[in-house]
Specification:
The protein contains one helix and five strands, in the order E-E-E-E-E-H. The chain is α+β, with helices and mostly antiparallel strands. The longest helix is centred in the C-terminal third of the chain and has 14 residues, at 60-73.
Length: 74
């Protein structure tokens, strides 16, 4: 199932797209339910996971957005 949405961290808006399932798998983030995740800030990919890491969150705000989405879906 795909979910898209927005989160706001300290006044900064992030858009995200997450493919998640009912059960975790070896392809999920940390063995969890999210197998694909894209987070964008200002039209730039700040997180991209597609059954493996392409873009890992580095900035503190990016990490907070990632953690919030992970808490909800993983």
């Amino acid at each position: 199932m795909w979910t898209e949405g927005e989160v706001e961290i300290s006044g900064v808006r992030f858009e995200y797209w997450a493919k998640h399932f009912e059960n975790g798998s070896e392809y999920g983030i940390e063995g969890g339910r999210i197998s694909k995740l894209n987070i964008r800030r200002d039209d730039i990919d700040v997180v991209n996971y597609d059954r493996g890491w392409d873009v890992y969150p580095e900035d503190e705000l990016d990490k907070q957005a990632y953690e919030e989405i992970l808490d909800e879906f993983n």
